[in-house]
## 1
Amino acid sequence: MPTEATPPLKDGDMLAAVDLGSNSFHMVVARYLLGQLRIVDRIKETVRLAEGLDGHGGLDPSVMPRALDCLARFGQRIRTLPAPRVRAIATNTVRQLANPQAFLMPAETALGHGIEVVAGREEARLIYLGVAHGNPPEPGRSRLVMDIGGGSTEVIIGEGFEALERESLQMGCIATTRRFFGDGRINRKRWKEARTELAAEFQQFAEAYRRRGWHEAMGSSGTIKAICDVSVKMKLTKVSVTSDSLAAIRDKLLDYDTIDSIKLPGLSSERRPIFAGGLLVLDAAFGALGIERMYVSDHAMREGVLYDLLGRDRQQDPRDESIRALQSRYVVDTEQAARVEATAMSLFDQAELPWRLDADNRRLLAWAARIHEIGLVIAHSQYHQHGAYLVENSDIAGFSRTEQQTLAALVRNQRRNPNPASFDKVPDRLVANVQRCALLLRLAVLMHRSHDRDPLPVVELDVDGNDLLLRLPKRWLEGHPLTRLDLETERDLLPGYGHRLLLRTT
């Protein structure tokens, strides 16, 4: 049977977020009570996935067992939760893999749930959302939030619960330690050269951030928390990291010659091997952005994912607003988009049961219909290809990279010859249904090619396996010769998807 639309959250329902970070894997489980989320369980394991990156898009096989073992333990904890109540996010390390499916397929099996890969700026949005909910901002006061992960660093300026500026840099505590101190040795000369190099990367957006300004700065990662712990233990600060305390910690660290010999108050043995890289990133950020003091939040991306799930349940899905923004940015004919969407949804309703389509398929098809013509802003010729490129490569708030690649595949295949390669980035577990949604979008786009405002007649669709039987009134079809020709052409193209189109008149 198809997956039915998930009923709204009710008191007692459980939600879970899984964060597959480059250094640690986190899982947080919450119960929904009286309109709020109450955390009931947290699990964190140090996996250091980024240590397995070989610089060529490959992952050392020795890293896989500890990642999969961790996910299996997470999976046991959330085994009884329905799929729509769980969201698992993979970040920088998986983004860098040449073949992410080689990791994601066994990882999803171990967890028992799908895993989405998010782009850096979407990761930044989720981080800000988590910090904002964990540390409610004062009205009218902006905040800079920074998260130093294992492989990337996100820097955000936001106000209220909205991220206004989002940046993601390819530097993190593991990646930076390996990049500058790969032989285990540290000294002041190396540090100065490395700090200058990292500061240059922050300079890409430092001026714009300084102009916008912020009232307070908060750090949300284990790295910044560890630096704060050292600052407190050294009696430099009480609850924060300052530019002065950061300089004192840096000077103390540089008294040591090797990573292994570092002994700082409050620094755990687990954090020691990657502490220098994380401190270096924060040192460069303070200098480039002019940060004077940074407080630490216990909330991060995993909590942001939970609140994002809650927003979707409350019909406050940021993806809907992002689609509207795309329509506006690329001057989409919204009336035409609405006509195509209505027909696509009608066809979906008729194919849902026999094809076992689900609520996620319906949402993606609707979004694809709303923006199927965005490529026209570039050129009419091959506009479906231009549109797919824009969808896949734009920063679209609320969408994971997996969702954007799926949406791009739908836009790419709305017309002309099938493009099987466009589905290669779609997870194998989703490909069959995404291809079927592409067929429904093709028919909807075809039926409205003339941009005619007159309503269509009743379009009947029966599906049986890979066969589609389309019924249209004979008289209407005779009066629309272009549509008839397009349907006959479509009949010749669909075998490229492994499907067959049959036409009948009523």
## 2
Amino acid sequence: MSLASQLDRYLAVRRSLGYDLRTSERVLRRFIRFADDAGAQHIDADLFLRWDASQPAAGSSTRSARLGMVRLFALWLSSVDLAHEAPPRGLLPDRTIRKRPYIYSKVEIGDIIAAASELPSTYGMRGLTCSTFFGLIAVTGLRISEALALDTSDLDVATGVLSVRHGKLGKERLLPLDPTVVDRLITYTTERNRLLGRASTPLFVRCNGDRLSEWSARASFARVSRAIGLREYSRFKRHGKGPRIHDLRHTFAVRTMIDWYRMGKDPAREMIRLTTWLGHASPDHTFWYIEAVPELLELAMARATRIGWEAQR
């Protein structure tokens, strides 16, 4: 099949997965016209660089976005024809490239929560708060700022619904929680109030009753990560380098999406729900995980290829 015909199939398959490809289609059709004029039968890094050099001057972000579009198309093509070579991710410089997320295993998340519960403090509040705080982010995918801003009243115990009132860009949303999560939060607030000797407005607090701060949360997470071997001790940088609290949110999103593919669910339909749950402004921000996590990309490409072959029958 010609590259143009392959592109038609590729766009049809990805649209069936829920992607908005208006920009990608324009870029890829320009690229295919260039490839046809050059007599190219297969895509590789050299072809992309020659095409990129022929385009009007553009910033690094625009050029990198073009690379991403061509790269995904080439990856799809290479799944059925190994003569195609996807241009490498770092072929062009881009200051806006997002860091690849660290995806925790279930064992690592369990170790984080267990080690956090052992964090030392005068009354035991630090371990109680941090273990619950990290656990809630792991099972809901909340942003750190959203979890820190929660008040006790934001949890409706009767319905099991958590109100996230301080989402990104001021957006609010409601999250129905699993009963086991609600029970854990009830246990936490009961013990928290006992240690404080009073009820608390903020959900997550320090030993003195003040709301847990972002600095304190990150410092505690760094300490826990070093204790279980996820980070190396850093002499000059107190927190060191390694997986972050925010990667718990990434892990929640990725594991959710992997389950869709393994259970045969329709990613296009489920993606809208996950985008709403995570509080993303656009589904494109959620689709990013497919490109950022190799396992997800493989599952998505396998499904897209299967749908493509079935459409040809």
## 3
Amino acid sequence: MKSLRPLFVSTRLWLALIAFVLLFVAAYALPFLFPLVQVAFVVLVILIGVDGWLLFRTKAGVFARRELPDRLSNGDQNPLAIYLENRYVFRADVEVIDEIPFQFQRRDVLFRTQLSPRETRAIAYELRPTRRGEYNFGAINVFVLTPLGLLKRRYQFEQGKTVAVYPSFLQMRQYELLAATNRLTEVGVKRIRRIGQSTEFEQVRPYTTGDDIRTINWKATARRTVMTDRDPRGASLMINAYQDERSQPVYCLIDKGRVMQSPFDGLTLLDYAINASLVLSNIALIKQDRAGILTFSDHIGQLLPADRRTGHMLKILELLYRQKTRFLETDYESLYASVRTHIRQRSLLLLFTNFETVSAMHRQLPYLRRLAKDHLLLVIFFENTELRSLLDQPAADTEQIYLKTIGEKFTFEKKQIVKELSQYGIQTILTAPQNLTANTINKYLELKARGMI
């Protein structure tokens, strides 16, 4: 019986058996059909035998393996691939079912293809995880059919593989590449006009869109033009690049309280904050600043002091990977005490949290003012995008008018929070979750360009 476990009946054979049942029934009414149906049934049995022999005569007729990254990026489309090899001597119809982790809640990872003899093919697809942690992949189930298509033989490969889902390192690499090539504007990061700059010369480089025209080096431009006069396409303006102020401490303070558990597009606000913190920390290191992390909820979580030594980015990634939401009220008094004790140098503090009402902000305002007194504090909280979509729809009845009125009240309170924090000299960002990373980097570059850190 164990040898028959890989054997399955195809849809074509089931349809043929149903057809023969109907023919045998019809033969009782028309006896002359009975010998013909018997002969046809014997032929079907012979074909089933031949089909089974073709499938099982080769011990390993198909080979498959899953091309899986060492870790997956949370909130991003991660590329995966299944490689198939047909070792049969005939063209095989193949059905592939990949047993992906239950966290994806998908049962449609089914692929159908045809493989010629000795042909190799790759099936590419993508998965988007929305939770950090360990994901367990099951087996790759490969069902093979011969050209007759009556029986199926199942092969199973790579059972029980575990992969960790980390914060969005794919997004981090994308921003890192764009920052290195001066193309951050492609993802919504604005060019910030520098108000004053360090006089320490760094290099002469080609002009790119958004550079200050006052830094054009006309002598270098003239020399480059002379060198490329035979090929005018190679000519370009050259500018003087100056070093930014370096080694400024930049801390991401991440609230893990219940206010950060709200979902948006499959991810929680905490996951958006973690992904943005990872990207911003990497940009800060590229800008030669020092990046640190502090997590907190009803008590202080983990503190990673600001640094920029080799391997520090890996420490940040591992720290953010382990963070989980706590369903308790956030203790800002403990946050202030911890910052006062462990962060002595004036730093840029990016506080990722969420305030739904003005009264909720007022309860924490004394601690925010104390933090802003010793450091440059940037409070980052979130718009309710579902509420915005409700307000954009016209009201059709009294109930919808009532709901829109309440929605307008909450939207107004968010704007009032921004205004009140600004009155105390506290920088703020009110952003939709999907725009969090770009808006945070924009603000960081703006504060750095203005010399506030």
